Amino acid sequence: MSLTLHFHPLSSFCWKALIALYEIGVPFTPKLVDLGNPAERAALLQLWPIGKFPVLQDDARGEIVPESSIVIEYLDRHYLGRTRLLPADADKALQTRLRDRFYDLYVHLPMQKIMLDRLRPEGPKDPHGVEEARAQLRTSYAMIERQMAGGAWAMGDDFSLADCAAAPSLFYGSMAQPFGDGETNLAAYLERLKARPSFARVLKEAKPYFNMVPKER
Ligand SMILES: N[C@@H](CCC(=O)N[C@@H](CS)C(=O)NCC(=O)O)C(=O)O
Is omega for the bond preceding 54 within 30 degrees of 0, making it cis? Predict the structure, then answer.
């Protein structure tokens, strides 16, 4: 088996890559990285000096592929399987990348800001930054609510890279900043994502680690 995914089962950006791997149906070796273990952290830094996962290692092609969106495009290009995650049409592919960027930058990152602030001790907490992140999430949720008025998935009828990005960011996002009462399209979209077999499998595999998710204090 040529592919190894360096990951952690609770990491939201790793979920993005895992969803893609399960959608495509390509075999891979999951390599759980404990960043608290100095040797494992050093091994990840050897692969990708930024030190963030997911990182895909492809021994057959001699490639190290970091960054969840790039991992997914790489898989779509070289290991195309059951599900095509980037449309063949260039304009549709551009729109799909835009939705992926939207979910990463304007849902995933503010969600992370709120969740990670919960882990900070009382003194160095950043209430201003958290409030900005909440405002960003409220704006993004309102946009998604309108986008999801028609069509099952982020790009319409076909599941894509954009849905891989949406699933983890909305799952944890709903814990960081709950959806508004009127945001029924958004809530229904998250339920569809949770029921999708690829994401349902990711959630099942992450369940034993859920006690490590930071709670609001
Ligand atoms: N832009 C990166 C973000 C990856 C990222 O933030 N990963 C987090 C886990 S969800 C991580 O590795 N955190 C460990 C750290 O920052 O030390 C991607 O899309 O893969």
Answer: yes
66/97 same-domain check: no
**Would residue 186 count as lying in a domain?**
yes
Token representation of residue 58 = 């492809």
Q: Residue 107 sits in a domain of what CATH number?
A: 1.20.1050.10
On whether both 103 and 31 belong to a single domain, the answer is: no
pLDDT tens-place string over residues 23-80: 999 999 999 999 999 999 999 999 999 999 999 999 999 999 999 999 999 999 999 9
Beta carbons of 69 and 165 less than 8 angstroms apart: yes
Q: Which one of 5, 6, 7, 13 would you pick to mutate in the ligand 1 pocket, going by the greatest count of ligand atoms within 8 A of its CB? A: 13
Q: Does the Cβ of 74 fall within 6 Å of ligand 1? A: no
Tell me how far apart the alpha carbons of residues 123 and 171 are, in angstroms, rounded to a whole number: 28
In the structure, what pLDDT confidence band is assigned to residue 123 with cuts at 50, 70 and 90?
confident
Quick check: CB of 41 below 6 Å from ligand 1? no
Domain identity same for 43 and 141 = no
